């Protein structure tokens, strides 16, 4: 067999094979064959990431839930840190990072998110595995089981499958709710029927759609409901590596004789259709890139196993770019692709921003609002008065007693800041301050000064806000 680099490129071979194939869902669902391989192992590893979804809410940190989205209190607890709506920019940068990461991964290697991490793909794979344990571990056995007349054994197996499916669906709904309330208390509230209404609503929605989508619709969600599947073509380019069939090497297809010898003058493909049998969406990758391809690479595992058996080199189906297969070009370095560079810069910016945010969180946030109607008041004795509203957010988990004073206006008097203010965790207590300057010491225009907030018993907590005093 010639080396891959020595095989001439014949684009017309690909044009002859190209065909758009969509599984419409009519008839039976796709029953994919399961087999071992490096990409199946990688897929299993990617699926295991979702264990964080189920186990994450039960982690504890200093006696509290490590990760908690407390919507009623407008707080996001993350391993000892507490984020408030004022810190939304950190969460925005985090979401930006993952959004661009998704786009970058698609540009580099296609729908790898769909193939290895997407919740629809993962839950469907789990549901079909459970189905195989009850109804047969091969597509042939499952078809025979479904075609058989109804018996007690068949009914029990069918019932058992659906019971397990529903249990996973319910657990999915409970796990979602557990991120928004105390996870351990949630179970007690559910079993005692004391859970809040949003919990029941979330459980109902997640149970229904998990059971329906993963158990029945399966690949049809990818074909007809998922908007991300429709956006893939925009993110691909001719240098994106995707599972692809090397038609120049594989065509024309031949068959193995009973003695295991390939037909003469035939390509490497023996038309065993194992690549189709293992595909979760039921497409034939030999017909070219398809809408249903989720870039999972299971067809590569299948083809490689056959190539090993017939003593042919692996790679008849492999991750390859359009330029490699159709133009014979070598793989381009990622750092020579402008799109990848732009994506990398945006992700680097996001990481730097998130890192800065998490390392520079302040225990309090101090803000002062100047009264604008009116901007100032001239008192009966001639003094000029400005009104301010002081707001300090307590981001700690302990009450703070805060004292306020001003600096920068030596002759000014202040009313409303005589006593310390107690601020509970996560709360803001507005304080009105009236600042007056004698008319004989006040020049017209703007006068800068500082409001200073200090915490009793904790000198490390001190805030300063630059304000302006307005005089006529």
From TrEMBL:
Residues 260-288 form the 4Fe-4S ferredoxin-type domain. Keywords: 4Fe-4S, Electron transport, Iron, Iron-sulfur, Membrane, Metal-binding, Transmembrane, Transmembrane helix, Transport. SUPFAM superfamilies: 4Fe-4S ferredoxins. The chain crosses the membrane at residues 42-59, 88-109, 163-181, 193-214, 340-358. The keyword Metal-binding applies. InterPro entries: 4Fe4S_Fe-S-bd, 4Fe4S_Fe_S_CS, Cyt_c_oxidase_cbb3_FixG, Electron_Trans/Redox, FixG_C, Ig-like_fold. Pfam families: Fer4_18, Fer4_5, FixG_C. The keyword Electron transport applies. PROSITE patterns: 4FE4S_FER_1, 4FE4S_FER_2. It comes from the Bacteria. This is Cytochrome c oxidase accessory protein CcoG. It comes from Methylophaga thalassica.
């Amino acid at each position: 067999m010639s080396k891959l680099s020595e095989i001439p490129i014949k684009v017309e071979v690909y044009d002859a094979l190209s065909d758009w194939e969509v599984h419409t869902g009519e008839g039976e669902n796709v029953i994919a064959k399961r087999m071992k391989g490096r990409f199946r192992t990688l897929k299993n590893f990617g699926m295991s990431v979702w264990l964080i979804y189920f186990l994450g809410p039960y982690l504890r940190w200093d006696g509290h839930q490590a990760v908690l989205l407390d919507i009623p209190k407008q707080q996001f607890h993350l391993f000892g840190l507490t984020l408030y709506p004022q810190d939304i920019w950190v969460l925005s940068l985090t979401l930006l990072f993952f959004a661009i990461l998704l786009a970058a991964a698609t540009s580099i290697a296609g729908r790898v998110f769909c193939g290895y991490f997407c919740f629809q793909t993962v839950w469907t794979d789990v549901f079909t595995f459970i189905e195989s344990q009850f109804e047969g571990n091969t597509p042939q056995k499952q078809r025979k089981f479904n075609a058989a007349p109804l018996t007690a054994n068949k009914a029990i197996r069918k019932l058992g499958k659906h019971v397990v499916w529903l249990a996973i669906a319910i657990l999915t709904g409970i796990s979602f709710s557990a991120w928004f309330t105390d996870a351990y208390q949630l179970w007690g509230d559910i079993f005692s029927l004391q859970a809040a209404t949003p919990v029941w609503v979330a459980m109902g929605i997640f149970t229904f759609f998990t059971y329906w989508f993963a158990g029945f619709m399966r690949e049809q969600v990818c074909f007809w409901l998922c908007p991300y599947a429709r956006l893939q073509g925009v993110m691909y380019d001719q240098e994106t590596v995707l599972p692809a069939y090397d038609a120049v090497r594989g065509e024309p297809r031949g068959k193995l004789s009973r003695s295991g010898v390939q037909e003469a003058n035939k390509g490497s493909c023996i038309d065993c259709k194992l690549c189709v049998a293992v595909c979760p969406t039921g497409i034939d990758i030999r017909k070219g890139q398809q809408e249903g391809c989720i870039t999972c690479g299971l067809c590569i595992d299948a083809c490689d196993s056959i190539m090993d058996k017939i003593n042919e080199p692996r790679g008849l189906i492999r991750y390859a770019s359009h330029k490699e297969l159709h133009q014979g070009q070598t793989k381009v370095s990622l750092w020579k692709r402008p799109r990848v560079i732009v994506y990398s810069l945006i992700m680097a910016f996001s990481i730097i921003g998130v890192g800065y945010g998490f390392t520079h969180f302040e225990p309090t946030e101090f803000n002062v609002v100047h009264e604008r109607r009116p901007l100032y008041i001239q008192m009966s004795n001639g003094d000029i008065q400005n009104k301010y509203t002081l707001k300090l957010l307590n981001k700690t988990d302990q009450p703070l007693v805060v004292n306020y004073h001003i600096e920068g206006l030596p002759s000014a008097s202040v009313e409303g800041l005589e006593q310390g203010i107690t601020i509970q965790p996560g709360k803001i207590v507005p304080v009105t301050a009236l600042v007056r300057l004698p008319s004989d010491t006040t020049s017209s225009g703007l006068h800068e000064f500082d409001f200073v907030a200090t915490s009793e018993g904790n000198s490390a907590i001190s805030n300063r806000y630059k304000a302006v005093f307005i005089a006529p």
